[in-house]
Amino acid sequence: MALSILNNIPSLAAQNQLSMTGASLQKTLFRLSSGSRINSGADDAAGLAIADGLRANVTALSQSARNAVDGIGKLQVADGALSQVTTLLNRAVTLATEAGTGTVSDDQRKALNAEFAAIKAEITRIGQKTTFNGQGIFGTGSTSDPNKWVGATGGLTSATALTESETITISDTDTGKALTYTVGAGDTIDDLMTTFNSSADVKVSVSLDATGHLQIADKTGNGSIVVSGGPLTGVGAVARATVSGGTDIFLSDGTSTGGGTITTTIGALTDSSIGFDAGTRVDLSSNDLLSATNAQTSLTKINSAIANVAADRGTLGAVINRLQSAGNVINAQVQNLSAAEDGIRAADIAQEVANMTKFNILNQTGISALAQANQMQQGVLSLLR
Predict the structure, then answer these.
(1) Among residues 217, 242, 267, which one ends one of the domains?
(2) Phi, psi of 293 (to 5 degrees)
(3) Which domain range does residue 91 map to?
(4) How does DSSP assign 183-205, residue by residue?
(5) pLDDT confidence bin for 159, thresholds 50/70/90
(6) pLDDT tens, residue by residue, 140-155
(7) Is it the case that residue 166 has pLDDT exceeding 90?
(8) DSSP 312-378
(9) pLDDT digits (tens, 9 = 90+) for 120-132
């Protein structure tokens, strides 16, 4: 090999190898410090895409597990309320049985009836005031939502024309103020919504729902609005929206095919509507214990009400069990998907430690080799002596 001082090829080779060793050592240190085999897309593009997808699945499933727990909590609150209703109805059975016998005077029946009336009032209060996370649990049955009014005609759009000369008035009983909208030529649903939504006096939100019904809701949520007037052409009569109690628990793995809802409907609970099934509901509102005959009639209805409550609790219990099963499946999915992601993303610490040892040694020998290569051309000087 000819002696040359223009290029030190051994030195260049040593530098190149040292650079590759340094890059490998740096990557190993990144993996050891982060615990992850993939720290950038360059490490494993396909693996990163799969691991990120699995992580998204795990995130969605973890929240779904919490959704299931929250749903169970709400249904357990409902079940606890119904348990107390059963206790009240059992006391009503005692009162009705006592009032139904001929050894009780009319004055004594009045006292028994007063307690019976209190029991009915408490059942209604439980149905109206039992809440979970600030929301009522039991539906209001035939009673409409005091916070929302809805147009009877669906399929509306913001461009739907209002051609009939009618007016609609929204009153805010909190402030004592009202706003009236009178249909003009060429007015549309959008004009109506803009007028009410921009009002500083009447705190309402007017919008169209997914089915094209006009929604008029109280922003404060305290049932202080009153709607009157109309019907408006294209909107129909504006009436209170009916509330149905219920719970929709959304469970998903973050994909369109892996999502679904577990739904249960919780019916009304008042002294005039005991039982979720519309066909078997019991109305105790007009019953009394003021005579033996009335007490015996009431007793039959009270027993039917107890049976309804027991059936309703069974329905809630079945959904609670279903949510618990769904939660168990979700937790198993989270465990298995986390393991799958870990297999792709996580660094093999034992292997990386071995690599670090190897690359440290190669880095040191590379530096030594570079030093030797740089010394090789010093031999040229001996020819000039």
Answers:
(1) 242
(2) -65, -45
(3) 59-138+246-337
(4) --TT-BHHHHHHHHHT-SSS-EE
(5) confident
(6) 544 455 566 666 677 7
(7) no
(8) HHHHHHHHHHHHHHHHHHHHHHHHHHHHHHHHHHB--HHHHHHHHHHHHHHHHHHHHHHHHHHHHGG
(9) 999 999 988 888 8
Name residues whose C-beta falls within 8 Å of residue 192's C-beta, 6 or more positions apart in sequence.
Answer: 162, 168, 181, 206, 214, 232
DSSP string across 18-68: HHHHHHHHHHHHHHHHHSBS-SSTTT-HHHHHHHHHHHHHHHHHHHHHHHH
- Domain boundary residue, one of 311, 337, 363: 337
Q: Does the pLDDT value for residue 310 go beyond 90?
A: yes
Longest dimension (CA), the chain: 142
Do 133 and 250 fall into the same domain?
yes
Average pLDDT on 280-287 reads: 88
Our CA dihedral for 48, 54, 59, 65, rounded to 10 degrees, sits at -170
Phi-psi region of 179 (alpha: psi -120 to 50; beta: other; left: phi over 0): beta
Residue 124 near residue 301 (C-beta atoms within 8 A): no
CATH number at residue 125: 1.20.1330.10
Quote the CA–CA distance of 193 and 170 in Å, as a whole number.
12
Give the tokens for residue 63.
């929240």
> Number of folded domains in the chain?
2
> Could you tell me if 84 and 276 are in contact, meaning their C-beta atoms sit under 8 angstroms apart?
no
Nearest to 262 by CA among 247, 277, 275, 273: 247
Separation CA 182–CA 196 (nearest Å): 12
| Residue 327 to residue 251: CA distance in whole angstroms | 9
Q: Are 194 and 159 in contact (CB under 8 A)?
A: no
Contact call for residues 277 and 267 (beta carbons, < 8 A)? yes
Q: Which of 12-16, 47-51, 77-81, 378-382 has the lowest mean pLDDT?
A: 378-382
Per-residue pLDDT band at 233 (split at 50, 70, 90): low
Phi and psi at residue 380, to the nearest 5°: -65, -35
Quick one: pLDDT at residue 155? 75
**Three-state DSSP class for residue 81:** helix
| Mean per-residue pLDDT, 310-322 | 94
State the average pLDDT for the chain: 83
